[in-house]
Amino acid sequence: MVWATVDCAHEGWAAAEFPDGRVSVGSEHGGTVVVRWDPEGETKPAGLLDGRDAVGWRAVCECGWRGPLWARVATLAEHDAERRHVYADPSPYGDAPDDVEDALRREWADHLGPSTLEVWSES
Predict the structure, then answer these.
(1) How many CB atoms are closer than 10 A to CB 9?
(2) Dist. CA 84–CA 121, nearest whole Å
């Protein structure tokens, strides 16, 4: 799912994050397409990973903003949405659970400020 503002200055998504810091930007061929951000904030293609190896999810924006990590936990007993600890079994594509994606979208919208209106979401 992609989120964008009216002026297209901000485009965000719920990114799966992997142990080495790579994040998802899409999916293809049964896996998650990932990139790595360099120190200047530019993205570098970084391959195709199995989304089931994601350590969690975060909202990201093309402007460079990154939300906090919603970390995957190993057991249902550790699940605590208020602490952003999520018990989930992602697909090979690394998709966030629906409730987590909704929370990530709200975090992304909050970083925009009150004067920016969202106009669309696209799968």
Answers:
(1) 12
(2) 23
Q: Which among 38, 77, 71 is positioned nearest to 54, based on CA atoms?
A: 71
In DSSP notation, the chain reads -EEEETTSS-EEEEEEE-TTS-EEEEEETTEEEEEEE-TTS-EEEEEEE-GGG--EEEEEETTS-B---EEE-SSGGG-BGGGTEE-----TT-PPPHHHHHHHHHHHHHHH-TTPPEEEEE-
Question: For the segment 26-69, what is each residue's pLDDT rounded down to a tens digit?
Answer: 888 889 888 887 666 667 767 899 999 999 999 999 888 999 99
First to last CA, the chain: 4
User: For the whole model, what pTM was predicted?
Assistant: 0.85
